[in-house]
Amino acid sequence: MVSKLILLTFMLVGGSLGYNFLPELLGYWESAPRWILHPIMGLIVGVIIFYIIGLQMVRPIEKGFSKIEKTFSELSMPYLMFGSIGAIIGLILAWLVNLSLIALDMIIISDVVPIILTIAAAYIGFDLTSMRREEIRRLFSPKTNKSENEEVLERKEGETFRKYKILDTSAIIDGRILEVVQTGFLEGILVVSHYVLKELQYIADSSDSLKRVRGRRGLDILNALQKEERITLEIDDREYPDTEEVDLKLVQLTKDMDGMIVTNDYNLNKIAEFQNIPVLNINELTNAVKPVVIPGEEMKVMIVKNGTERSQGVAYLEDGTMIVVEEGKYHINETVDVIVTSSLQTNAGRMIFAKLSNNQKSINNGEGSNE
């Protein structure tokens, strides 16, 4: 469809040029036949010539349109909307200035300078408003009803609420952020920096098969988040050329947006905390919502491997919590009843210690006496 439109455009342009200019050009040919000087003949010749040219230009023009479409699809709607408004304002201001320049009727100043000024004003207007869109949005946000609106939207520094949640690469690849969003426990607007997008694309194109799978999984998670109705996902295009580290760029972005970083990266977590930036760590959330067990509680588990000390066996709960069972070495690949003796919280997660229940021990003793 696009190729046909391109060819049609070339043919219309060629026909128009041929109709208006070809008879005049051929008029200088004294021995030219009279019928060839007719405008209709010029129209036909122009259409044929530009049709041939169009056939050669269709492929490059389609590629150019595809690149432009891809570039605009990666930009967020607020970025384009505020940038367009700024460009229009710049054009209006340039037009007002150009009226006086044209009135001077001076060479270059009245002819060339207005063109340069118009292009520069449109570019500056687009750049300023797109980069400062959050500040502009705050200027025009309603200030009425302070008791309700300001307490929610203008909270002081140090409180837990932030409207913008800036996603780190590790949180996207991990994938659990999608499940958290689907449950409705995360509010506000999710923001993905274009630096994170580039990092995900680089990982997805890696020669290492494991990295490639992780990168593609991250891109799939982003697509799924974009389709979620519970939350809004935005792409941020701000540039931070002062540093090469993506983590530091995300820290600066979070400061500018007064947001929170969502990450699984331990180092980024510490850097953000050092700069008093709120962090949502999905690993910490996972550990916090794991089932609480108390000493003396009974449960049924399956011993899957040996422990590190003495005759211990190791089992796991459905959420991945490790259970160390005393005397469990002798019941590998068996489902046994155990009693919780204690639990320990570590950086890697929660660890539960247990022992075989009295019923299980009596069964074991009975089997030993029969032997």
Helix content: 40-55%
> What is the CATH top level name of the largest domain?
Alpha Beta
Our measurement of the CA-to-CA distance between the termini, rounded to an integer number of angstroms, reads 84 Å
How would you write the strand order of the largest sheet? Answer: 3-2-1-4-5
Name the beta content range: 15-25%
CATH fourth-tier homologous superfamily of the largest domain: 5'-nuclease
**Number of domain modules:** 4
| Mean pLDDT over all positions | 80
Class based on secondary structure composition and strand pairing: alpha/beta
- Which CATH architecture of the largest domain is right? 3-Layer(aba) Sandwich
Count of beta strands: 10
Let me know the largest β-sheet.
5 strands, parallel
Rg (C-alpha, Å): 34 Å
Q: Describe the global form.
A: elongated
InterPro entries: Nucleic_acid_metab_PIN/TRAM, PIN-like_dom_sf, PIN_dom, TRAM_dom
Protein name: PIN/TRAM domain-containing protein
Keywords: Hydrolase, Magnesium, Membrane, Nuclease, Transmembrane, Transmembrane helix
Pfam families: PIN
Secondary-structure blueprint of this entry?
Elements: H1 2-26, H2 39-73, H3 77-104, H4 113-131, H5 133-139, H6 149-153, E1 164-167, H7 169-174, H8 176-183, E2 189-193, H9 194-204, H10 209-227, E3 232-236, H11 246-257, E4 260-263, H12 266-274, E5 279-281, H13 282-288, E6 298-306, E7 313-316, E8 322-326, E9 335-346, E10 349-356, H14 358-370
Parallel strand pairs: 1-2, 1-4, 2-3, 4-5, 8-10
Antiparallel strand pairs: 6-7, 6-9, 7-8, 9-10
Task: Provide structural commentary.
The chain has 371 residues and is α/β, with parallel strands linked by helices. It has helices spanning 2-26, 39-73, 77-104, 113-131, 133-139, 149-153, 169-174, 176-183, 194-204, 209-227, 246-257, 266-274, 282-288, 358-370; strands at 164-167, 189-193, 232-236, 260-263, 279-281, 298-306, 313-316, 322-326, 335-346, 349-356. It folds into four domains: 2-73, no CATH class; 77-136; 154-288, 3-Layer(aba) Sandwich (Rossmann fold), CATH 3.40.50; 298-370, OB fold (Dihydrolipoamide Acetyltransferase, E2P) (Beta Barrel), CATH 2.40.50. Helix content is 55%, strand content 16%. Strands 3-2-1-4-5 form a five-stranded parallel β-sheet. It has a five-stranded mixed barrel with strand order 6-7-8-10-9. α12 (266-274) links the parallel β4 (260-263) and β5. The termini are far apart.
